[in-house]
Amino acid sequence: MVLSEALVFLECRECGKTFGHVLAHVCDECFGALEASYAPSRFSVSRSVIEGRRPSMWRYWEFLPLLDPSNKVDIGAGYTPLIRAERLAKRLGVTKLYLKNDTLNPTYSFKDRPSSLAISKAREFGLKAVGCASTGNLAGATAAHSAAAGLPCYVFMPKSVEKAKIKQAALYGAQLLLVEGTYDDANRLAALAADRLEMGIVNVNLRPYYVEGSKTMGLEIVEQLGWRTPDRIVVPTASGALFSAIFKGVGEAEQAGLISDSRVAMTCAQPLGCSPIVQAFREKSDTIKPVRHPDTIVQSLAIGEPGDGYQALRVLRESGGVAVSLTDDECVEAAALLASTEGVFAEPGGAISVAAVKRLVEEGEIGRDEEIVCCVTGSGLKTIELMPEPSGVRIIPPSIDAVKKVLNTY
Ligand SMILES: Cc1ncc(COP(=O)(O)O)c(C=O)c1O
Ligand SMILES: [Zn+2]
């Protein structure tokens, strides 16, 4: 189904000016961020039609800003499992806990969702090269989708990013520009490249389209719960894009009549050493103070100047949510607990949502009987160097006696 441009357009979040279906990300009147909007008739799709489609993020076609399906770059992102986590719930002292396991995406993080959409749009706009600014996971996702689309890809990311993430992106064929600086330095360089070299940087000039891919995580959660929201969704947060997009997806599911009530307390988790959104929320401030020197091992969430920070603050207030920062140790411990109770192996940044539930329950900010969905956004295999030294490992000679000796000690 090729769609008319009139059904999808960009709109300024601040002043409401509309922009048609163009490659732009900032309002020329007020410098506000642009976001995709849809004519209400675009959302005319039923639950059963969606349920009959392939298990992929693209099953929510009516909610995505692509016009021609032949431009789709689909390597299998989305429709990841939503699993009931009873053993973990017990350990955290809650009764109804679910995990949205986005480690099971083609490049092992949720970033495949926005990348799949952004690279499809790059194709639709006829761009000749693409790229991204990345804290690590987006690099692999953008590089993989560019490889599948046959487009050259340029990745800007801090030199300090975990080795596996660097190798992964390089092996998909991307050109890597490792910046001696922070993510925010890399992001500024990527923005320059977007302007000067007419490149489609997925999270800069393609951003209004890119974030729409992340919306599918919200749509999937409500579908997988039987077309309803949980009480709370807990989201690992850096720029605030995923956090805001999930809420947008849930709201649009209500607009489309797929769910009857979109209320859900959106809960934002950031690492203590880089938590500008949490800080503004806790101080009840309307100003997000940039963090110039992030101080955390959770590099995937180390964004000091969050591009969607103000939007995330609005979502926190509108949804009645809460924001919390966690120490590096809490994130690593949460990753270990998640692996050992549920068999889900996440990076500390991906498991920060679990650490958040633990802390908020202890502090009495989350009720024990709330129905909670923790988004688990990236795989632990990419951050193996951050994981605790394993216990329960013995090196033995190849003899049955050695095995017997070990077993006797259990
Ligand atoms: C594993 C993981 N989770 C969550 C996020 C947060 O995404 P956002 O920048 O949309 O807030 C990132 C960002 O890179 C990430 O790598
Ligand atoms: Zn504007």
Tell me about this structure:
This protein has 13 helices and twelve strands. The chain is an alpha/beta fold and 410 residues long. α8 packs across α10 (309-319). It is globular, with a radius of gyration of 21 Å. The model has no long low-confidence stretch (mean pLDDT 96). The structure holds pyridoxal-5'-phosphate and zinc ion. Residues 12, 14-15, 17, 27, 29-30, 32 line the site of zinc ion.
Low-confidence stretches: none
Quaternary: single chain
- The second-level CATH architecture of the largest domain is 3-Layer(aba) Sandwich
The proportion of residues forming helix, as a percent range, comes to 25-40%
* CATH class placement of the largest domain: Alpha Beta
Overall geometry comes to globular
The mean pLDDT is 96
User: In total, how many beta strands?
Assistant: 12
What's the arrangement of strands in the largest beta sheet? Answer: 3-4-12-9-10-11
Key traits:
4-stranded parallel sheet; Rossmann fold; 12 strands; alpha/beta; binds pyridoxal-5'-phosphate
Which helices and strands appear, and what pairs or packs with what?
Blueprint (H helix, E strand, L loop, with lengths): L7 E5 L21 E5 L8 H5 L30 E3 L1 H7 L3 E6 L10 H13 L5 E4 L3 H13 L3 E6 L4 H9 L3 E5 L3 H14 L3 E2 L5 H18 L7 E5 L4 H15 L9 E7 L4 H7 L26 H11 L2 E5 L1 H15 L9 H11 L8 E6 L23 H9 L2
Parallel strand pairs: 4-12, 5-6, 5-8, 6-7, 9-10, 9-12, 10-11
Antiparallel strand pairs: 1-2, 3-4
The structure holds pyridoxal-5'-phosphate and zinc ion.
Task: Summarize it.
By secondary structure, the chain is an alpha/beta fold. It is built from 13 helices and twelve strands.
